[in-house]
Amino acid sequence: MAAPKTSPLATAPKIGLGWLVRLRWMAVFGQLAITALAVVALQVSLPLLTVLALIALTAASNLVVARWLERHEPSSRASMAVLVLDIATLTGLLLAAGGPSNPFSVFYLVHVALAALLLDSWRTWLLAALSSLAFGSLFLLPSHAIDAHARHMQHMASPLHLQGMWFAYTLAAGFVAHFVSRVANALRARERELLELQASVARTERLASLSTLAAGAAHELGTPLATIALVAKELEYRLERSDASSVSDARLIRQEVERCRDILLQMAGRAGEGTGEMPGTVAVRHVEQRLSEALGAMRAQVRFDSRDTERELLVPERLLVQVLTSLVKNAADAHAEVGCTEPIRVVSRIEERRAAFEILDRGVGISEQVRARIGEPFFTTKPPGQGLGLGVFLAREFAEKLGGELELCARPDGVGTVVRLTLPRDVVHEGSA
């Protein structure tokens, strides 16, 4: 049987329900064929109207589900509802054709197996229990007797055999529900791991592209900046003798050019060797000191709040400071957006095996829609020209490569954002474990 054509963006519930629709059409045709064989060839007496009505119910419901599936995105509840309906119709068919002595009662197991493949564990067990109750109801509800099946009731002159069949079915359903659902869950977990690995590879490729871009920009802009610096220095020298009032402007140009060259050198360094920086032992106090120096004039807007300043961790110090600097600058932009003058809090917490750095601001916060996308490269909520959307992306990459994580959430009082960077205290041993 050829695999059904599905969209590459189809979700697991949509694929599962699509296959279930196909299996139900097969069940309808199979039931019609068996009914025709029993009535015409074997001359079995059946309540034909009841049997055909139940088969028609399955066909009609399948047609409705197929049409609904074309326009909607299903959930696990839809597959669950279809399987419950199928158990009910199978019970009706069995009652119309011999009750518990009908050998086709084994098809209850098919529904349990399908549930284990398509549904989560608790729904699978619920459906297994429901099918067991449905099977048990065949012993209590009035059914249409068929001679060929009725003779089976005389096995060892006791109905205990059929009751044993029900007990055996219940055990078999439990085994199927347990083992098939375990296998299905393992496959789903493997699928999630593969998707996460693909996403990680994609992020790594983006990061490599950014590194290449940074190295290329540093190389291409280095020569013109060197020329501007040389001309500005010559202009400064000449103005000192002719126009002293313009000397400060020429000196400012040269200073800004030197600053641009320093930035490009840092970019080139990050692109070429930043991700390969060797971890070193550093105290929290030293990290805060380096962060304060990197912030420059912005340090007046920051308040460090830590009781663990003398505790040490083993991390790539320069990269950690760069990441924290970028996150603090984002918090400063959030304060500027709302005109907040309250200091940005930087809180460090060092536990036995983990280290956490929190940046707390009083900005507008982030919505659920933004939180779902934040961390994507080049996604930013800042006005054009004020950010590229790379700070959080690079910070998250840094954390994940070291075995940590980056979280963004609302502050407990609902005003502002908490950015929490968590790392292993020893990234050499714990981060690679």
- Please give the alpha-carbon distance between the first and last residues: 45 Å
Give the C-alpha Rg: 35 Å
Integer average pLDDT:
76
The number of helical elements comes to: 12
Helix-and-strand structural type? alpha+beta
Low-confidence stretches: 1-8, 153-157, 271-275
What's the count of strands? 7
Strand order of the largest sheet: 2-4-5-7-6
Main pleated sheet? 5 strands, mixed
Order of helices and strands: HHHHHHHHEHEEHEEHHEE
Shape summary: elongated
Strand percent estimate: 5-15%
Helix-residue proportion:
55-70%
Description:
Residues 1-8, 153-157 and 271-275 have low confidence and may be disordered. The protein has helices at residues 12-41, 48-71, 76-95, 108-118, 121-137, 147-150, 160-242, 247-273, 284-295, 317-338, 368-373, 391-401, and strands spanning 280-283, 302-306, 312-315, 344-350, 354-360, 405-410, 417-424. Strand 6 and strand 7 (417-424) form a beta hairpin. The chain has 433 residues and is of the alpha+beta class. A five-stranded mixed β-sheet has the order 2-4-5-7-6, covered by helices on one side. Helix 4 (108-118) packs antiparallel against helix 5 (121-137). It has twelve helices and seven strands.
